[in-house]
Amino acid sequence: MPGGSSAEEATRDAAQTSGTPAARDAPPIAIPSDVANSSTTSLPSSGGGHAAGKRPQLAGTAVATDPARIESAISHPGTVRINVQGAFIVEDEATTPGGSTVDEDFKHENKDIRLPNHTAVVSHIAVDIGGSLAKLVYFSRETGTDKSKQPEVELGGRLNFLKFETDKIDACVEFMRRLQRDHHAANGHGGPELCVMATGGGAFKYYDKIRDALGVEVLREDEMECLIIGLDFFITEIPNEVFTYTESDPMHFVDARPDIYPYLLVNIGSGVSMVKVSGPRQYERIGGTSLGGGTLWGLLSLLTGARNFDEMLRMSDRGDNTAVDMLVGDIYGQGYGKIGLKSTTIASSFGKVYKMKREAERDAEDHGGLANGDAREGEANGDGGGGKELGMFRAEDISRSLLYAVSNNIGQIAYLHAEKHNLGHIYFGGSFIGGHRQTMNTLSYAIRFWSKGEKQAYFLRHEGYLGAVGAFLKRQPRNWGRRNSLEALHPIAKSMARPES
Predict the structure, then answer these.
(1) How many angstroms separate the Cα of 116 from the Cα of each of 43, 160, 292, 440?
(2) Spans of biased composition, class Low complexity (predicted)?
(3) Least packed by Cβ within 10 Å: which of 30, 37, 82, 198?
(4) Residue 169 has pLDDT above 80, yes or no
């Protein structure tokens, strides 16, 4: 729905929509292994708690007095406003963080967000194209039967979430063309043209490909800003989105907080970025590491022959990292209680490999044979790893060990940055997590251990779509619908919109 440009229209809309938002083996050396800025329109919520369709009630008292910000919001109202009243995550298809439907070219996450009260036309889609995955977000309309009204009525719509391997970017573009055709069919050729909001490195790399294939406007948005806008939206607007993880309570949903800032965002994609967020669109990248999801994917593809990231995660579920990792107990024969190390603490990731290979080689030389066969023999026979024996080491054990190594490293670096900047709330996002329980357990335990329980790790059910959702929301009014933003605009906006005669 095109937004008006007058101050009077902005004030009227503000008055109508003002409301509230609603491892088993853990990190190495010192952690036991057996512990193992939103732009959406918010309408008043009707309840609290965790139930689907209910949004937590939050009270806010902050009042903005910056005329420049107010005038910017009034003068540039954007293209469409998303009504999130009664928003909830669809639970009928999957109830766990990692539920999804897999197609040959893409994965459709079975956790769409229903927007039962949004009826305006949405004429844009959003894509976040990273080094490994392209994440797509689009709105689709719902229709159904309402016995009290007409047989066919509009029931709002939903946000859909898909991801493609970036190597299959052509399939992603083709899917966008299909959405474009559906958009034209639903709105007619005289309706608004579909627009593509793009972020991530691929927004630049594949800009010409997308624009030429669809023949539409492609708006490139800043990656970091989109991440923050997307995360803020999920934290404040969507119930049952943010949760903490422990082995005893693997999915404990948390209520939205009125004071979400400051916090640390740890976005784990191919690489890792760590961003300090102090307020709406107030952020600073304070660190990161090149050892991220791309590292795990690349090394496991070499070591195990696994064909995709999900296959690697499934293998790690069946693995035993103690077959390749050196534990404190392997060194001391027991724990090192004086400094708080249990016998099951990982002392060295992959620490047993060299010693075991040398022993096997010496044994083979003594008996005139090979050391447990050639690790490459399985690949030559077409096994390609995937659960087969890789010499003396199983692909599953290697997968689990490397997953822990990468996750432990990220967890400790995240803690150090949070400690340095005095940040108590740490949100982990990015497709690396993928609702995978071992990964979340490792990251969560690392934060609890190193901080002695003073800091908390949070996860999201749409952790891989922060950037895509942020880009989707960027098509809307600047600062519109942030918690308290409408309430803050109202007093001064009225005087600006209706000057005394």
Answers:
(1) 12, 14, 37, 31
(2) 21-45
(3) 30
(4) yes
SS3 136: strand
How far is it, in rounded angstroms, from Cα 414 to Cα 273?
A: 10
Q: Is the pLDDT of residue 485 over 70?
A: no
Rg (CA), the chain: 25
Range with the poorest average pLDDT among 229-233, 334-338, 381-385, 419-423 = 381-385
More confident site: 170 or 483: 170
In the structure, what pLDDT confidence band is assigned to residue 92 with cuts at 50, 70 and 90?
low
Distance, CA of 307 to CA of 449 (rounded, Å) = 34
Q: What pLDDT, on a 0 to 100 scale, did the predictor assign at position 280?
A: 87
CA-wise closest residue to 201 among 133, 155, 139, 259: 133
Compute the distance between CA of residue 200 and CA of residue 224 in angstroms, rounded to an integer.
9
For residues 419 and 340, is the Cβ–Cβ distance under 8 A? no
First CA to last CA distance, the chain:
32
Q: Alpha helices of 61-215 — where are they, by DSSP H? A: 67-75, 169-187, 202-205, 207-214
Instruction: For each of the domains in the chain, give its residue range(s) and CATH number, in order of start.
Output: 77-241+469-474 (3.30.420.40), 247-359+395-460 (3.30.420.40)
pTM above 0.70, yes or no: yes
